[in-house]
Design goal:
With 392 residues, this protein is α+β, with helices and mostly antiparallel strands. It folds into two domains: 242 residues, 3-Layer(aba) Sandwich (Rossmann fold), CATH 3.40.50.300; 137 residues, Nucleic acid-binding proteins (OB fold (Dihydrolipoamide Acetyltransferase, E2P)), CATH 2.40.50. The strands form four sheets. It has a six-stranded mixed beta sheet with strand order 6-7-8-3-9-10, with helices on both faces. Strands 13-12-11-14-20-21 form a six-stranded antiparallel beta sheet. Helix 2 packs parallel to helix 4. The longest helix has 18 residues. The structure holds adenosine-5'-triphosphate. Adenosine-5'-triphosphate (ATP) binds next to helix 1. Adenosine-5'-triphosphate binds next to helix 1.
Length: 392
């Protein structure tokens, strides 16, 4: 296990600054995901942690000890890539044994016949074989040890790559998009296996992905990068429910968060001519963005029993995606068709029953689910929004 501390890491390639001062603490035994769009600097940061790349400025500490000058091998850090990087001419067992052979047997001892020349050669080989078998057992690939990589499925190759990293007993496990070459079903399976591996090993994991679902489902905490800067670091539920900015709100969650331009007026927020009776402490006339997650909105069925939501919007339906147990409804405000809305609607216990969405319908907007962002995209912290203050 290990604690990783990054302080003010910067990196440029030519004139382009790719990392613009990254400071991050990864706790002992934590699973932290680095997420962000393609090109934001995730892999570069991971390579800097591993020692394959050098930062221009900043400091990297593992368990409080600076490792900036240490070679990759000396950091005891394992790195798994998306393309597995297995040796095609070697068996699974040889691939997995490679880091131990390289680390424990000197060059001449790796040659054929070396066991006659090298003291402890046989016992070292035996220890390596035993470690490889133990890790292969753990990853359920023991029956594949004699095969070559070409005779394995994508998921099996990925497990071999994980195994090769694990045999060294690293203190820090770094993974760069390890699932991106797998099909959707296998991704879910290997995702679960990696989480299980983390739980059993207790190692510190730093996991790079551009897939927010992976980050949300696997991690203790998520660190979101954008153009070389950290936007927010927190538990998945924090980034989802309490995003610090429009960019975080939009990146996390599928379907994407609804964002509507509003203006502050005396009675609340003016959304395309309709005033939402919300108290804000913003000056009147400010242009802001109101955010709400698609599942927080309610389809208000005409004549249905139950309390009416305090605020409703009338929308026109554009399209409906049937996901089996739920629908994703794409709509737009009736009087401002350029403002789009997405809703997730549960189909209830009988998923076969058709759920009709009228061409024009009302959407209930629950007060507690609303998020307000400034014109600069930064979150205006709650409790700025309050329906009850106005109603009282
Ligand atoms: N060795 C290099 N030389 C020049 N530019 C580089 C080098 N490595 C990365 N870059 C550039 O740095 C930026 C960040 O790259 P990086 O691979 O870290 O992004 P990423 O977030 O991991 O992207 P992806 O999700 O596509 O892998 C990109 O614009 C990339 O082109």
């Amino acid at each position: 296990m290990a604690r990783l501390t990054l302080t003010d890491i910067t990196k440029s390639f030519g004139d382009t600054q790719v990392l613009k001062g990254i400071s991050l603490d990864v706790h002992d035994g934590e699973f932290l995901s680095l997420v962000g769009a393609s090109g934001c600097g995730k892999s570069t940061l991971l390579r800097i942690i591993s020692g394959l790349e050098t930062a221009d400025t900043g400091r990297i500490e593992i368990d409080g000890v600076g490792v900036d000058e240490a070679a990759p091998k000396a950091r005891n850090v394992a790195l798994v890539f998306q393309d597995y990087a297995l040796y095609p001419h070697m068996s699974v067992a040889q691939n997995m044994a490679m880091p131990l052979v390289m680390g424990r047997l000197p060059m001449y001892a790796r040659l054929p016949g070396a066991r006659f020349l090298t003291p402890n050669h046989t016992s070292t080989r035996r220890e390596i074989t035993s470690k490889v078998e133990q890790v292969a057992e753990q990853l359920r690939i023991a029956h594949l040890l004699a095969r070559r990589p070409a005779a394995l499925s994508g998921g099996q190759r990925q497990r071999v790559a994980l195994g090769r990293a694990l045999v060294r007993d690293p203190s820090l496990f770094l993974m760069d998009e390890p699932l991106s070459n797998l099909d959707a079903k296998l991704r879910v399976e290997v995702r679960r296996e990696i989480v299980e591996l983390h739980r059993k090993s207790g190692l510190t994991f730093v996991y790079v992905t551009h897939d927010q679902v992976e980050a949300m489902t696997m991690s203790d905490r998520v660190a979101m990068l954008q153009e070389g800067r950290l936007l927010q670091v927190g538990a998945p539920s924090t980034l989802y429910g309490d995003p610090a900015s429009v960019d975080v709100a939009r990146f996390i969650g599928s379907p994407e968060v609804n964002l509507m331009p509003v203006r502050t007026v005396a009675g609340g927020l003016d959304l395309a001519g309709q005033v939402l009776p919300l108290a804000t402490r913003q000056p009147e006339g400010a242009t802001l963005f109101l955010g709400v997650r698609p599942e927080a909105l309610r389809l208000v069925e005409a004549g249905a029993a139950g309390a009416e939501p305090a605020t409703t919007l009338t929308v026109t339906r554009h399209s409906v995606e049937d996901l089996g147990g739920e629908l994703v409804v794409h709509a737009a405000l009736l009087h401002a068709p350029d403002i789009a809305l997405r809703l997730r609607v549960q189909k209830g216990s009988d998923a076969r029953a058709p759920l009709m969405v009228p061409s024009t319908f009302r959407v209930g907007v629950p007060e507690g689910a609303l998020m307000l962002f400034g014109a600069d995209g930064q979150r205006i912290s709650d409790p700025v929004l309050s329906l009850s203050e106005v109603m009282a």
